[in-house]
TrEMBL record:
Its EC number is 7.2.2.-. GO terms for molecular function: ATP binding; ATPase-coupled monoatomic cation transmembrane transporter activity; metal ion binding. It is a multi-pass membrane protein. It catalyses: ATP + H2O = ADP + phosphate + H(+). This is Cation-transporting ATPase.
């Protein structure tokens, strides 16, 4: 439907008041919803018009329903034809326009409904509807006007005269208010359900009958129905049956795939259970999770359960698996929201927020009271709802091949209209019977625009999908197969995609000592060892330690055990969070307090105490540079930076560890109230802990293959930046001779603007060797501007998007690693790459990759969980070898589709040329001649055309063409058609020079337009044109570097040879029954027969030589590059790279920038 996604209900279900707006109420001023936000959309109001509606009803009848069918395709036209524009205050329907990046418009037609609480009474009478808007305002009304768009609700604000988005309690709620929540009564819960709806994430699921009707009413199948009617009038039954069979198969395949995708998505997101809620009277009640609304107080189950809403933990603590959000299957500890003053913020209070879709592994409280949480968001407002919305409403995809296909069909339609006019005029002038003129004119439309085109275009994709299936790669959307052939940028998640899920322990480097590989050789009394046993956030679940893989490996290497059920008596009047113990030595240490790892601080800290010690100890671990900066310099060895550099160059992940003792005078109560900044200071540096993050065996080889093909490779991960950069180095996403520049930002403060700084993460190394266990580094004096890349973490990316958007093209073009990225930020990076002109693939395995997988041109999931629902490709083999296979098959499919489109286009125009030549004498091809061309030649070749397998050599450095309207493909088709037209005209003209020739004469009195007498002209045109379909199949079947040689496709070659022999037989020595079947008038002498063979052979040689030498060697290799050099590339990223080359002084290392005053610079960035 021309790329327009619209939702429309035929019958009005409006519940608005009957107040009829006057003309003065109508307002053409543009209004918006979500104004100033990323999802800002225009909105216009419409009210029902009885006059317009009656006119439409009359036109429906007079056009036999054709106008209503057009309105079905274009709901916006239907809205404007039956409604008139009005002020939103009185509107019954809304037209919402989403203008995606000023490139793609998507329009939605939505009903505006009225909600009220007339059937729900409270103790004091009728209750008001209570809700909260996105601006944080809480309102109460007896009646509200509401509309829903893209699964979100918008409520009419009578004060601001605009629709405002409905939100939960996550906006403008004070922490004290959340803590003082007492829950909701049944009536209050029902009142909120009217506004917020059921707590469900409902995905669209249409019945098979509905899918069948919608598919059958698409323009393509309506055109096929029109063609079948025309063919039935001409008694052209056999080809009609073939088209019907193809249509049934096409519709069935589409319905089955759509139904399967809908069920998969529904099975992934639709779930419900029962839950206990606390009522205002202090009682507890078990209800369905679908009845939850913001404000409910829920009991967090102690058993394994999944969260059905977003909630803030008020009492107790929880261990949660948040892999659905972060992609990292590391249990996270959630603690109760603090009682301090201030406004609750999801980002800042994430450690107290339980998100929908995450799994509760364990809950704990220090009393017998249950763990309680207040519901803040339900349904599509939740984190999981946002994830599903990103799947249901991905950014619009724009593929040049598809655009050009529609343009070419438009061109064919214009040609068809002109041909119809010519036919009507010319035949009318010769006084042909009107019914004959009408049928012949309509027949031209079905010839010029081949109804079989869409079915044929799927052939190459289906063969590619089947070949991928043999490699355990499955595709649920055949459209993206061609798109994958254009990929020039691949983004990878890290953990589980490039690397194994777990880390390996390498050893430790204590201060002033040599490296120790076997941790159990260390003294258990050493501070470094004690820190390794306690400085973590592990939990003990089902007899197993779980947590960050780094923490697990570090703790397991010590040989100590985690004690879950410990005696509190040894620790006096305080209760440790956890206790670690050495059973052999009977030693134990209690972990009193934890400061969770912070990506912005790059460290985590614990306060511990051993039973025999009268004091508390602090252990702090994190990025070595951070720990060193927090340590007393007297405790830091002089060579520590050199040692650190040695390990990082070799690709190890290195952690620093420090300690300090808290004075004996500080009590337990005082320890629990210490601020983090007072704890993490004046440390004694203890040494380095070294880990290996092994790559998957296949990773390095695949990355090198992709880099040799000149693809841009990017890592987008939720892991920390140090680990990400190390892995990027190891797998060659970042080359050894490439300098790494980290982008750091500061948010604006009262006295200072937002700033951005570019810091060298580490100097590039040109040659690193390991000799006798020591690193030998040979520096070559390298200027970082000769080769550098950017790395950035999620926090700083958010600031760049907010305060430095002009820098996004530069950062993304030169970006190699995007670390600590949330799911929405991953999607932002993907969209930024697409905006620069890259064709982007995303390969990941986590649920937090769903948005990015859906936003990318091609999504590749290595998991069968949530991410597989969002991505068109799913690999059963959990490694990235699938990426190169998908690109190879995609390129082969794209070249196949390209060739098939050229072949089908030339086929329709070649047949059109034949018709127009014969129409000149009021003759035509017979039904069996049409059938032979359409089925035995064209469909036969098309069916085997795509069997040519993908090229098995190296990936080409350039992807195939995507533009059908380019200079080369257009020239190729035009030259072929010129030769075809010339050949047919020569055969038509020259056969008339023979002595035995008898000209065809049309009988004007003959009203039977189906049975036309045979003629020599018909024979010459038909027999010459037969060979042209064989010629086009050969010249448009391309091989290296994207597909194997033509001769490897044995079925296709056999078809070509067999049909060449058949066509030769029909031309030279056809049996009498064959002449009768084709209604041909055979020349009595062989000279006329060999004339057709000679012309066809010469035409084949000319076409082959033109395609092989003129097109592929001269135009492609010489002329086209020269032409392209005269014009600037349309790819934005090319302009960015050229601009960066012309500005060698940028970026300035370690220079803090607050803005850009250079007018020329800003103008250039805007132009890009």
């Amino acid at each position: 439907m021309c790329g327009m996604v619209s939702h429309f209900s035929i019958h009005s279900d409006n519940l608005t008041k009957n107040s009829e707006p006057t003309r003065k109420d109508q307002n053409d001023k543009l209004q918006y919803i979500n104004f100033g936000e990323d999802d800002q959309m225009e909105i216009q109001g419409f009210v029902f018009s009885k006059l317009k509606s009656n006119i439409c009803l009359f036109l429906y009848a007079t056009t036999f329903g054709i106008l209503r069918l057009i309105f079905h395709w274009y709901p916006v036209l239907h809205l404007k034809a039956t409604h008139r524009k009005c002020d939103l205050t009185f509107a019954e329907k809304a037209l919402i326009t989403e203008n995606y990046q000023e490139k793609t418009k998507t329009q939605f037609v939505k009903n505006i409904r009225i909600l009220n609480s007339e059937h729900i009474d409270g103790p004091e009478g009728k209750l008001k509807l209570k809700y909260r808007l996105a601006n944080g305002q809480t309102k109460e009304k007896y009646e509200i006007r509401i509309l829903r768009c893209k699964k979100l609700s918008y409520i009419w604000d009578e004060e601001l005269l605009q629709f405002a988005r409905l939100s939960g309690l996550d906006r403008n709620s004070s922490k004290l208010m959340l803590h003082t929540s007492k829950g909701l009564t049944k009536e209050e819960q029902r009142i909120k359900q009217i506004v917020y709806g059921k707590n469900r994430i409902v995905t669209p699921e249409k019945s098979i009958l509905e899918l069948l009707i919608l598919e059958a009413l698409t323009p393509f199948y309506i055109f096929q129905l029109f063609s079948l009617i025309v063919w039935a009038a001409e008694k052209y039954y056999y080809y009609s049956i073939a088209i019907i069979i193809m249509s049934v198969v096409g519709i069935s395949t589409s319905i089955i795939q759509t139904r399967k995708n809908q069920k998969n998505l529904k099975g992934t997101v639709n779930f419900s259970s029962t839950i206990i809620v606390s009522r205002t009277q202090g009682t507890f009640e078990k209800i369905s999770t679908t009845d939850l609304v913001p404000g409910d107080i829920i009991v967090v189950s102690q058993q394994d359960c999944e969260m059905h809403c977003d909630a803030v933990l008020l009492h107790g603590s929880c261990i949660v698996n948040e892999s659905m959000l972060t992609g990292e299957s590391v249990p996270v500890r959630k603690t109760a929201l603090d009682h301090q003053d201030g406004i609750y913020n999801v980002r800042e209070d994430v450690n107290s927020t339980l998100f929908c879709g995450t799994k509760i592994i364990q809950t704990r409280t220090r009393d017998n009271e249950p763990a309680l949480a207040v519901v803040i968001r339900t349904g599509f407002l939740t984190s999981k709802g946002e994830l599903v919305r990103s799947i249901l409403y991905p950014p619009p995809a724009d593929f040049k091949f598809d655009r050009d296909s529609y343009k070419f069909i438009g061109i064919l339609a214009v040609i068809a209209v002109l041909a119809v006019i010519y036919t009507v005029v010319s035949k009318s002038s010769r006084q042909i019977v009107p019914i004959v003129i009408a049928i012949k004119a309509l027949d031209i439309i079905t010839i010029v625009i081949p109804p079989a085109l869409p079915a044929v275009m799927t052939v190459g994709k289906l063969f590619a999908i089947n070949r991928l299936k043999k490699s355990q790669i499955f595709c649920i959307n055949s459209r993206v197969v061609n798109v994958s052939g254009s990929i020039n940028c691949i983004c990878f998640d890290k953990t589980g995609t490039l690397t194994e899920d777990a880390l390996d322990m390498w050893g430790v480097v204590p201060v002033y000592e040599s490296a120790i590989k076997n941790i159990r050789e260390m003294s258990t009394s050493s501070d470094l060892f004690r820190g390794m046993t306690t400085c973590h956030s592990l939990t003990f679940i089902n007899g197993k330690c779980t947590g960050d893989p780094l923490d697990v490996k570090m703790f397991e290497s010590t040989g100590w055990t985690y004690v879950d059920d410990h005696s509190e008596l040894r620790y006096g009047n305080f209760v440790p969070i956890a206790v670690v113990k050495n059973e052999t030595l009977n030693e134990e240490i209690g972990i009193i307090r934890q400061f969770q790892f912070s990506s912005s601080l790059q460290r985590m800290t614990v306060i511990v105490r051993a039973p025999e010690n009268p004091y508390f100890e602090v252990f702090c671990k994190g990025a070595p540079e951070k720990i060193i900066s927090l340590s007393k310099q007297a405790t830091v060895p002089n060579d520590i930076h050199h040692k650190l550099k040695e390990f990082t160059k070799l690709g190890y992940r290195v952690i620093g560890l420090g300690t300090r003792i808290i004075s004996n005078d500080v009590s337990y109560d005082e320890v629990t109230k210490l601020h983090r900044e007072d704890v993490e200071k004046d440390l004694n540096f203890l040494g380095l802990i070294v880990f290996e993050n092994p790559l998957k065996p296949e990773t390095l080889g695949v990355i090198n293959t992709l880099k040799e093909a000149h693809l841009k490779l990017v890592m987008i991960t939720g892991d920390n930046i140090q680990t990400a950069v190390t892995v990027a180095r190891d797998c060659s996403i970042i080359e050894n001779d490439t300098s790494i520049i980290e982008i750091l930002t500061n948010e604006p403060s009262k006295n200072q603007e937002a700033s951005i700084t570019f810091e060298m993460l580490n100097k590039c190394q040109s040659n690193v060797k390991l000799i006798d266990g020591k690193v030998l580094d040979l520096e070559l004096g390298y200027d970082y501007r000769n080769g550098y890349c950017f790395v950035i973490s999620g926090q700083h990316w958010a600031n760049v998007v907010k305060y430095f958007p002009n820098l996004i093209p530069r950062i993304v073009t030169k970006g190699a690693v995007f670390a600590r990225m949330s799911g929405s930020q991953k999607q932002q990076v993907i969209e930024s790459l697409k905006n620069l002109g890259y064709y982007v693939a995303m390969c990941g395995d986590g649920a937090n990759d769903c948005g990015a997988l859906k936003a990318a041109h091609v999504g590749i999931s290595l998991s069968e969980a949530e991410s597989s629902v969002a991505s068109p490709f799913t690999s059963k083999q959990a490694n990235i070898t699938c990426t190169s296979k998908i690109i190879k098959e995609g390129r082969a499919a794209l070249v196949t589709s390209f060739g098939l489109f050229q072949m089908m286009l030339c086929y329709s125009l070649t047949e059109f040329i034949s018709i127009m030549i014969l129409y000149g004498i009021d003759s035509n091809l017979t039904s069996m001649q049409f059938l032979f061309i359409d089925i035995c030649l064209v469909l036969n070749f098309a069916a085997s055309f795509g069997r040519t397998k993908a090229w098995n050599g190296k990936l080409s450095k350039t992807p195939p063409r995507t533009s059908l309207l380019g200079f080369i493909p257009c020239t190729s088709m035009v030259l072929f058609l010129v030769v075809a037209c010339t050949a047919q005209w020569l055969a038509f003209a020259l056969i008339q020079n023979y002595s035995w020739f008898e000209p065809f004469e049309y009988d004007l009195s003959n009203t039977n337009f189906i049975n036309i007498p045979p003629s020599y002209e018909n024979y010459a045109v038909f027999c010459t044109s037969m060979f042209q379909y064989i010629t086009m199949a050969v010249i448009f079947s391309k091989g290296k570097p994207y597909r194997k040689n033509l001769f490897t496709n044995h079925i296709f070659v056999f078809s070509l040879l067999a049909m060449t022999l058949v066509c030769g037989y029909i031309t030279l020595i056809p049996a009498q029954w064959l002449c009768n079947l084709f209604e041909m008038k055979i020349p009595p002498e062989n000279d006329g027969k060999w004339l057709c063979i000679l012309i066809a052979a010469i035409a084949f040689v000319i076409c082959y030589l033109v395609q092989s030498f003129v097109i592929e060697r001269f135009l492609e290799n010489i002329i086209e590059p020269a032409i392209l050099r005269c014009f600037n590339s349309k790819k934005v990223y090319v302009h960015v790279l050229e601009h960066l080359k012309s500005e060698p002084q940028w970026p300035e290392i370690n220079s803090k920038n607050h803005g850009f005053d250079n007018v020329a610079y800003v103008a250039t960035e805007k132009a890009l």
